[in-house]
Amino acid sequence: MAMLEVKDIYKAYGNVEVLKGVSFTMEKEETKVIIGPSGTGKSTLLRCINQLSLPNKGQVWLDGEEITNPKTNINKIREKIGFVFQDFNLFNHLTALRNVSIGLEKVKRIEKEAAQTRAMQELTRVGLEAQASQYPAQLSGGQKQRVGIARALAMDPDVILFDEPTSALDPELIGDVLDVMKSLAGKVAMLVVTHEMGFARNVADEIIFMEGGVIVEQGPPKEMFTNAKLARTREFLGRIGALYGEEETGG
Amino acid sequence: MALETLIESLPSLFDGLLITLLLTAFGILLGTTLGIVLATGRSYASRPLAYLILIYEKVLRGIPLLVLFFLIYFGLPQIGINFNALTAAVLGLGLRSSAYQAQIYRGAINSIPEGQIHAAYSLGMNKLKAIRHVIMPQMLRLSIPGWSNEFTILLKDTSLAFGIGVIELMRQGRYIQVRDPDLVLVVFLLIALIFFLLVFTANKILRYVEKKYQMAGYQTEAHR
Ligand SMILES: Nc1ncnc2c1ncn2[C@@H]1O[C@H](COP(=O)(O)OP(=O)(O)O)[C@@H](O)[C@H]1O
Ligand SMILES: [Mg+2]
Description:
The complex is a heterodimer of chains A (251) and B (224). Chain A is of the alpha/beta class and 251 residues long.
């Protein structure tokens, strides 16, 4: 049984159908990258997985539990699904350390001191131990996003969903964030929406190409980059590869 | 002699001052508590409830305070609801202030990026926890300048309680004026000075609190 199973998800806003039957599975500690043109429903798909948006149809299963069942305690499930946002969404009134520890304190109800010790470990993991006492407004975009990743990691999730984690960053700050994500590969499952082709090629176990609310093609990076079945996939990968360099995450 | 009468009158002015402070304290307490509840309700409660709150705010912001005082103190007894003058004044001040404060808090809530709520949910917080740990602390910080402004307005508006017979500063001044009409200018200048000093001191203290709770990214502007 797959750790995460997304089954035939449909989502419409008004009468605009955004997702038209999306299915895929993820195994423990697997990294999958979702690529596709903007407006295709990638963010909507991620939000449907942790139920920030409710799908109109379809199911999501995590560890054999159906998340989409209204009887499921969604808050309990969300503890196991990390989410890293494009625009960070840090809590502005809390220091970096407390941004990371607040979930442990208030959701997992871990005693404050222990929670902060753990939070400090996660900040160290993303290279920000020196910034622990700073507020979000005092951090660079790249640092904010690394706090966002540490915040997700602290909850010990089964899977972390990344929604274009580097899209809001200045080019010179992207590398640090990608390096952190790369260091997590194989330790926690990651589902990453990104245009960073270097990351997709070198880190992903599988690439999912989405367009128009459906999965067009999916496969291991090597196959997708050199041997995609569909002309549309080859065309998109060629165009996006030219736009987003691969150098900083090479090897 | 006028000066003697004035000095003799000072204790009564002091009594009036205490009542003024009492009205302010209870009025702002009621206004703040209710204002926070109303603002939270308008942002997060079901639609019909949010709509009722909106109507409440509009009505209370739309009628003069003195009319509200008269309605509560003279009007309600007709349908069997009796308050003494002091309670009626606190209610009037508090209810009206709650309508204005709700607006302040709601503005603050709206300026907190919605993504932070999504982030809170993503950590497994329910709505109540998200409001309590993410929205509230930021809302309160962002509201300090607006609240300070409202506080000083309420402090000054306690003088309207004179209209329903509360023996606050104004009423005590009026008693002195009746006893010795020659003192009228001096007494009301004195009362004006007392109000001015209260507002001035309150602003100083609130400005200090604002600074103390200021943090990076929260450079709130005072409007007064
Ligand atoms: N909350 C919403 N209300 C209405 N339309 C939405 C909403 N969220 C997304 N959409 C629409 O759904 C489509 C897919 O959006 P999105 O999932 O953000 O795409 P992507 O992340 O692939 O760029 C877009 O056309 C967008 O306008
Ligand atoms: Mg998107």
